[in-house]
Amino acid sequence: MLDGCGRTIDYLRLSVTDLCNYRCRYCMPAEGVCKRPHADILSVEELVEIGRAAVACGVKKIRLTGGEPLVRRGILDICRGLRAISGLEELCLTTNGSLLPSMAAPLREAGVDRLNISLDTLRPDRFREITRIGALSDVLEGIQAAERAGFQDLKLDTVLIGGFNDDEIGDFLALTMKHPWEVRFIELMPMGPCADWEKSCFLSVDTILQRYSALQQIDPQGVARRYRLPGAKGTVGLISPMSHDFCADCRRIRVTADGKLKGCLHSREELPLRGFHGKDLEDAIRRGILQKPRRHHLSEGASDTPRTMNQIGG
To answer: For the chain, which domains are there?
Structure first.
């Protein structure tokens, strides 16, 4: 389906929870978020129903997000229900990786096609610092479990933060020499807890190209500009919502865990979907697609959304 700006919308990011077993400093407050009443969060059946209606509106790809989607009770039932939808071409999931040692194989069996794993540092002390309560070893074991389960084309998502992990760029690039992974550097966005951080924290991903001239450009994929080091097994992706926004090519909509459709991550406008069924639900999704904003306004200041990233779906 085309939105009001003529963009083809075929990608839904569907949040299944706003809870997480980490407390990443740019995403959540130190105390975490209050657990909401069960009735406030979309049920397994509602999530599958929204997925089915979205596919009827032209969505071909669904990505499950959180919070951390693997802490959601019934996550495997959600995956199975979505995978059974006729016309859905790709079911993906973004995770912090910590629960993959036990969950990777069941996710694969439930029909998940591809995983993105968040990994902001390769140093255990820094990992503990950024997540507040996480252990790097859990994520590294999770990556290994994902490969054993048969997941290919793993993507590692790294939020680039000046003064924190920009001295590890070379270490991340080295991973692509040895492994068939895509390491994707994502610009930090001024929203939620990090909206007031020092400007020096917000680096352009062009910094990577300036420091590593050996990177050779290859075909883009989605919102990522992609590169490869000579002889590397893997690739490097650069995602630049701040320095080179991709709003003109954006093809996604989002649904929050409490059932609100957002046309843009950074917009405060939301369209409630709960209570709609069948054709009425499809019509509500179509309205949300038609109302999708032309662009965000991060270049003019902080995000317009009052929600934190975990409350929207990363």
So the answer is: 11-312 (3.20.20.70)
